[in-house]
């Protein structure tokens, strides 16, 4: 529990509003900690989830990051892997492979498929992705309001040297193991996308905004590419605190360093903070190993940032909230 004196209790009786941007595994694990810190307090957590990793396979719309957040907060995730359903089986994938039907690089579990089948059915019936996500969450009860960044389709594709057609981010990431180095990322559809209902309001009316340790380029960066979202973050009176996904010059897991290289950003805690910039960040949490990090215009604080379990993630979230209250006293 954060000590009372770090939060000016809102004078109205309304709950504290925390808004977090999130990708998949890094975001979801942080959010589970944040939810634990705020348990028993009057607080609402709104999560703006990345949907630019979404892909259509076998006619099914798959939203990997929304599902990772939903399964993790709903207690249904394959814990060691960090994504996908626990106690998963792969009978359908094996049957598809027996038909020679691809792609084989994106393994779809049987339990997970139920989510994609329902989502696709509801989307075809005319529901928006926001509505579909809310319906799926009635089962998982994640304890947060999970909003897609946009109801409009946005997909990150990569341009590869010598390859004329862009490749979907998932194919490059999963099948090609993030090689070769793309010449650039393209968020297809982003320029026409509108923030999903509730997204801008959640930023404007937040008491605190958090950037979990998600991939800065293809997770948080994709959310920021939806017109209006970055502007709302620059404008909001809420303090924005980020948590570094880079520790000691390398991502904790995954290949975020390759993504940073594509956009010309050093894979360091300082590099990521500079990429977000002082217009967005009011505070940047780095790992103890990066305690010497200095970023112009952004206060930096060091603490252990490994989310080894829920308690460790909760301790990070608690410090992020304290940091927020110190850099900008919360609403009077
Ligand atoms: P993805 O969509 O599944 O790739 O997940 P995110 O974009 O939300 O998060 C990926 C990032 O999480 C990677 O860059 C990792 O470095 C970071 N990450 C994973 N585990 C940890 C952790 O324990 N601590 C910190 N600080 N970052 C982590
Ligand atoms: Ca992702």
Key terms:
seven-stranded parallel sheet, single chain, 35% helix, alpha/beta, binds guanosine-5'-diphosphate, 14 strands, three-stranded antiparallel sheet, Rossmann fold, 12 helices, binds calcium ion, 332 residues
Topology:
Layout: E1 16-22, H1 25-38, E2 43-49, E3 55-57, E4 60-62, H2 64-73, H3 91-98, H4 110-124, H5 129-140, E5 145-148, E6 155-159, E7 167-168, H6 169-175, E8 184-188, H7 199-204, E9 208-211, H8 220-224, H9 229-235, E10 240-243, E11 246-247, E12 250-251, H10 256-262, H11 269-276, E13 283-286, E14 300-302, H12 310-327
Parallel strand pairs: 1-2, 1-9, 2-5, 9-10, 10-13, 13-14
Antiparallel strand pairs: 3-4, 6-7, 6-8, 11-12
The structure holds guanosine-5'-diphosphate and calcium ion (CA).
Residues 23-24, 53, 64-65, 219 line the site of calcium ion (CA).
Walk me through what this model shows.
The chain has a single domain (16-327), classed as Rossmann fold, CATH 3.40.50.10680. It is built from twelve helices and 14 strands. It has helices at 25-38, 64-73, 91-98, 110-124, 129-140, 169-175, 199-204, 220-224, 229-235, 256-262, 269-276, 310-327; strands spanning 16-22, 43-49, 55-57, 60-62, 145-148, 155-159, 167-168, 184-188, 208-211, 240-243, 246-247, 250-251, 283-286, 300-302. With 332 residues, the chain is α/β, with parallel strands linked by helices. The two termini are 21 Å apart. α2 (64-73) runs parallel beside α5 (129-140). It is globular and about 60 Å long. A hairpin with a 2-residue loop joins β11 (246-247) and β12. The chain is 35% helix and 17% strand. It has a seven-stranded parallel sheet with strand order 5-2-1-9-10-13-14. Strands 7-6-8 form a three-stranded antiparallel sheet. Bound molecules: guanosine-5'-diphosphate and calcium ion. Calcium ion binds at residues 23-24, 53, 64-65, 219. Guanosine-5'-diphosphate binds at residues 22-27, 65, 68, 213-215, 219, 243-245, 247, 251-254, 256, 305-307.
